[in-house]
Amino acid sequence: QSKGRARMDGRTDIQFADVAGLETIIKDLQDIVKFLQDPKKYEKLGAKPPKGVLLEGPPGTGKTLVAKAIAGEAGVPFYQMSGSEFVEAIVGVGAARVRDLFKRARAQDEACIIFVDEIDALGTKRAEAGIQTNEEREQTLNQLLTEMDGFTPEQGVVFVGATNRADLLDPALCRPGRFDRKLRVLKPDTEARLKILKVHAERRRMSDDIDLEQLARDLPGLSGAELENVLNESALEAVRKDSDVITPKHVYNAVERVLQGVRRPAQPDQ
Ligand code: ATP
Fold first, then answer.
1. Which segments of the chain have a pLDDT < 70?
2. 28 closest CA partner among 54, 65, 59
3. Rounded to the nearest whole angstrom, what is the distance from the C-alpha of residue 227 to the centroid of ligand 1?
4. What is d(CA 189, CA 14) in angstroms, rounded to the nearest whole number?
5. How far are the Cα atoms of 80, 141, 236 from residue 181, in angstroms, in the given order?
6. What protein family does this chain belong to (predicted)?
7. Ligand 1 center to residue 65 CA distance, Å?
8. How confident is the model at residue 78, as a pLDDT?
């Protein structure tokens, strides 16, 4: 799904307030925001700066959103690459892309976030990869490791990785100074689903009689991305029906459509 997603470099205005139901994770990331805002302060005080974070969790739970929000809160640029871009690429292309990304980040000469989505695609333990050798994957991984080790703390570069399967990652990626802090991003429970729905409802014209609490209870197992999709489909339904406001009926129809698309039984809350 994220394979074709456009990469985004540069500034983002996404804030922690845009991230719903992940309060513990946001709390754990405050020191990284502080570090990005003033990396030299850590050096002056002799404090060991944060270097990398690994966000582990199911698809659509807000890992990319969190990574962008760190950059947005700190007011620093955000550089992104996706591990899956390298899987089928010609040998050497992946490593060159990594070099290019880090070159762009370095050229700015300021604190930044470097985000690697689907990091398991290039950092899987060899035995688990199911392929005898994958030279491209290995070259890319080695290039990434070399580049990551090439920053000094006062440059204020923080790496954020995202994966659905942290257990498959090459241990080299998780060594100190790399993605050494692991945070689990879970699927939202009822309360978190309500918060996510509220964040996304605020941006849409919803009629007052839509019961978001009931909706949150009715949609167990859905990720943040799927919940957003429900509201987006509701808005599209309203457009199709020439309505100037989203009504409970539009939401109801959207839920039907999204649940059909999800095509799996509802999972219990985690
Ligand atoms: P993947 O593993 O597929 O890359 P992800 O965990 O990175 O997924 P995101 O890309 O961050 O998920 O989520 C997609 C969209 O879903 C977000 O841009 C946001 O609109 C919505 N979303 C997901 N989780 C949340 C959340 N906790 N709060 C608010 N919105 C959310």
1. 1-9, 87-89, 123-133, 263-270
2. 54
3. 10
4. 23
5. 19, 19, 40
6. In the C-terminal section; belongs to the peptidase M41 family. In the N-terminal section; belongs to the AAA ATPase family.
7. 5
8. 94
59 lines ligand 1 (CB under 6 A): yes
| Cβ 231 under 6 angstroms from ligand 1 | no
Residue holding tokens 């978001």? 212
As a whole number of angstroms, the distance between CA 170 and CA 122 comes to 9
For the chain, where are the E strands, in sequence order?
52-56, 78-82, 112-117, 157-163, 181-184
Residue 247 Cα distances to 67, 84, 193, 218, angstroms: 33, 39, 19, 17
Q: What is the pLDDT of residues 45-85, one digit of tens each?
A: 888 888 899 999 999 999 999 999 999 999 999 999 988 87
CB within 8 Å of 80: residues ≥ 6 apart: 7, 8, 9, 64, 67, 114, 115, 116, 117
Q: Tens digits of per-residue pLDDT, 116-136?
A: 999 988 766 655 555 545 777
Taking Cα atoms as reference points, which of 160, 46, 44, 40 lies closest to residue 111?
A: 40
Judging by DSSP bridges, how do beta strands 78-82 and 181-184 pair with one another? unpaired
What is the Å distance from ligand 1's center to 131 Cα? 30
Classify burial at 107, counting beta carbons within 10 Å of its beta carbon; exposed 0-12, middle 13-18, buried 19 or more: exposed
Q: How many CA atoms lie within 13 A of 124 on its CB side?
A: 22
Closest CA to 136 of 117, 122, 116: 122
Q: What is the pLDDT of residues 26-37, one digit of tens each?
A: 999 999 999 999
Do residues 124 and 170 touch, judged by C-beta distance below 8 A?
yes
